[in-house]
Each structure stands twice: as structure tokens, then as C-alpha cells.
Design a protein that fits this description.
Structural class: alpha/beta
Strand content: 15-25%
CATH class: Alpha Beta
Helix content: 40-55%
CATH topology: TIM Barrel
Radius of gyration: 17 Å
Number of helices: 11
Number of strands: 8
Distance between the termini: 14 Å
Largest sheet: 8 strands, parallel, barrel
Bound molecules: orotidine-5'-monophosphate
CATH superfamily: Aldolase class I
Number of domains: 1
């Protein structure tokens, strides 16, 4: 159960991210460095977190022409990160180019494709010309990701059960996780940690419910306990 949680370090600078990391235990969670923190602090923050013993998910969601994404993916692999991601909607050629670039490196991060962002709903998809449900769009992009050599996909836990059946080999990384009674914030497709686990999620990305808590380590411990209960058949 332990390292299934990835804590999203959505901070404005390295000092705040390191401060939070110092309150967490690398045997009990992994950490995610996303666009805000990486843009502000660069690779140094990734290196510092790794030196503290944390496995790092570099969440830059690459989406560009195949050559640009391939070269960016190679740079991410050279940083030694555990996991990295790109947008499946960048297409099969883009994903395959990233796969090929990473395979040529000595260190191979897990390469994960984002399907439909958890902040999107059916109306949000319509706005961008996608006239189908989030579930069917997630399904379509997960199929493409699987055929393009991805190790896994990012999806909402609401879609995890269907994808678990269709793609037993794919890692399912699920943000949009909210313990019961916590605020949804800008997320639209959410589930609790226990529900996500039961749906077949491998890794749960959790930000504000941990980082905005008065006691982040305590909030993480509570979520891990809920997951333990769920996997024991309760919760
Ligand atoms: O790739 C991601 O990690 C991601 C994909 C997605 O569809 N939805 C999503 O929320 N995320 C990330 O997961 C984290 C969720 O944070 P909280 O909403 O604070 O738990 C943020 O860092 C998002 O960037």
C-alpha cells in the first residue's frame, strides 16, 4: 500500500516543496513535481528530492510535435525520475517517439499518458469539439496509449475499473482523489482513496488534501489507513 500515494508538490518555489518533503517519509509516499514548481525551480528541486530518498514523478504533461517531445522525454530520463508523463491527445506518433527516445537511455522512467484531465466533464469536452462522454474518450486514448508503448495512463478513478478490465498490463495513475467530506476544488471527476483502490488504481495522486492540511503527515497516514482498511475488505 505504502508507496501507492504520490503527493503533488504544487508549490511556488523549492523552499516550500522541500519543507513539505521534510515532513514526509520516502517509504510511505512518492512525490510529484509539476509545472508550477518545475518552472520556478528547475531540475535542481528534482535532484534535491531524489537525494532525500524520494521517487519523483515529473508531471510536465508534454504535448508537442514528436521530435520535441522525444527530446524533452530524453532530458527527463536523464534527470533520473521514476515516472514522467505526456498527453495521449498528442497522438500515437508523438507517444511512440517518446518511447523510442527513452528506450535509448540507460535510465527508463515509467512513461504515462494523460487521457482526459480530471478537471474536465462532458461539457468541457464539447467545448473542444469532443462530442462523447469522458469515459469513452478516456477509453479511446487509453487504447491509443497502450498501442503506442506507454507503461500506463492517467485517468480519473471513475474510469479505472473499465480500464483495469480492458488493459490489465497498464499502470493506472489516478488524480482527482478526495477523502470523504473534503472539497472537490477544481476537480470534476473524483473518488475517495478507498474507491480508487477498489476500482483498480495502482497509484493515487493527491495534492491539496495532504499539502493544505494542518498536519500533512497525519493526513497522509489517515489516507493510508483508509486504504489498508479498503484492501482488507472493509472501508
Ligand atoms: O497528471 C496529473 O498528475 C494530473 C492529471 C489530471 O487529469 N488531473 C490532475 O489533477 N493531475 C494533477 O494531480 C494533482 C491533483 O492535485 P489535487 O487536486 O490538489 O489533489 C495536480 O498536481 C494536477 O496537476
Amino acid at each position: 500500500m505504502t508507496a501507492r500515494i504520490i503527493v503533488a508538490l504544487d508549490y511556488a518555489d523549492a523552499a516550500q516543496a522541500i519543507h513539505l518533503a521534510q515532513r514526509l517519509d520516502p517509504t510511505r509516499c512518492r512525490l510529484k513535481v509539476g509545472k508550477e514548481l518545475f518552472t520556478a525551480s528547475g531540475p535542481v528541486v528534482v535532484e534535491r528530492l531524489q537525494a532525500m530518498g524520494f521517487a519523483v514523478f515529473l508531471d510536465l504533461k508534454f504535448h508537442d510535435i514528436p521530435q520535441t517531445v522525444a527530446r524533452a522525454s530524453r532530458a527527463a530520463a536523464r534527470l533520473g525520475v521514476w515516472m514522467m508523463n505526456l498527453h495521449a491527445s498528442g497522438g500515437g506518433r508523438m507517444m511512440a517517439a517518446a518511447r523510442e527516445a527513452i528506450d535509448q537511455e540507460s535510465h527508463h522512467p515509467l512513461l504515462i499518458a494523460v487521457t482526459v484531465l480530471t478537471s474536465m466533464d462532458e461539457e468541457g469536452l464539447r467545448e473542444i469539439g469532443v462530442f462523447t462522454s469522458p469515459l469513452s474518450q478516456v477509453h479511446r486514448l487509453a487504447n491509443l496509449a497502450a498501442h503506442s508503448g506507454m507503461d500506463g495512463v492517467v485517468c480519473s478513478a471513475q474510469e479505472a475499473a473499465v480500464l483495469r478490465q480492458a488493459h490489465p498490463q497498464l499502470l493506472l495513475v489516478t488524480p482527482g482523489i478526495r477523502p470523504a467530506h473534503s472539497a472537490a476544488d477544481d476537480q470534476r471527476r473524483i473518488l475517495t482513496p478507498a474507491q480508487a483502490l477498489r476500482a483498480g488504481a495502482d497509484h493515487l495522486v493527491i495534492g491539496r488534501p495532504i499539502t493544505a492540511a494542518a498536519d500533512p503527515a497525519g493526513a497522509l497516514a489517515d489516507i493510508l489507513a483508509e486504504m489498508d482498511r479498503a484492501s482488507a475488505g472493509g472501508g
